[in-house]
Amino acid sequence: MKSPRRILVITLSNVGDVIMTTPVLSALHQMFPEASLTVVAGPKGAEVLRSSSIIGRLLVYDKQAPLKQKAEFLKELARDSYDAAVDLRNTAIPFFLGIPKRSSPLRRFKSLNMRSRHLEVLAGMGWKIPETIPCFDFFDSAGQASVLGILRDLNIRASSGWILLAPAAASELKTWRFSGFKELLLKLLAAFPHPIFLVGDERERAILEPLVNLDASRIFNLAGRTTLPELAALTSRASLVVANDSALAHLGFELGVPVVAIFGPTHPGKFAHEGPAFRMVRRPLFCSPCQSPVCLLGARKCLDDLAPETVWQACREVLHERFETRVS
After folding, report:
1. What band does 202 get if pLDDT is binned at 50, 70 and 90?
2. Which of 19, 225, 315, 326 is most buried, taking the most CB atoms under 10 A from its CB?
3. Residues linked to residue 197 through DSSP beta bridges, in sequence order
4. Fold of 142-322
5. Residue-level pLDDT at 328
């Protein structure tokens, strides 16, 4: 088969899950630079992809939509013909569209890690995955200029080097205790001279505001104030990201920024990453990872009993490698 000229990629819904599929898009663009990529994503996840220059067409698919609306979506999708389909959601859409080369619905993965599994789907189609995959373009120059404008409005002169903290997460069960983040912030303030940004969505803004009171001259609450491309631009210039097992941890990893990720009930083998700049922190217990939305023991010992000192030591390692001066 000739190199495909039009490729359909069906990705996932949640922001963090979509971020972990971006290496597939970067790999496809590297393998077939002349091909046009059409990408289908959920309403939230699509925001991750909007600024990318390698995506020719981005379509939003809402799996909660009425059946009639789904049928209209398929008609819109069929407007173009495709040579190949990479379906990371494993739907029947490529079959309905009659796309000649498509990823198999029957998959035996070698890796447990979800990011690696997405790339295995490409290998299962007979394509050789590049040894080095470039970083996905999560933001463009406009997004970068926009976030720097936000910082100027806050009278922040630094253009890089800050720390990002994401104390909240979509699932409360994946969230380290608030008091732990408070103690960690005090240690970071004492050891780190640059601004610290709290990030999250609009819903989390009020939740994070009390942390600003630790030092309002150096801690800034940006929750709900940035778009996802702006957050990516902000993250790309950070010296450290500290987050629960959440979208920001995955975004920091993809952008090559040092990350300390706090894990509780979710499986680190599936969702953590390997690399010199990624630190995974967890409290090993007989019941963890349970991957359950409700703690079966009635108490989140995997997260509530995780000591701030443990998280701080991981941050210290990264900061010590990042800066010449010793972080004590």
Report:
1. very high
2. 19
3. 164, 220
4. Rossmann fold (3.40.50)
5. 46
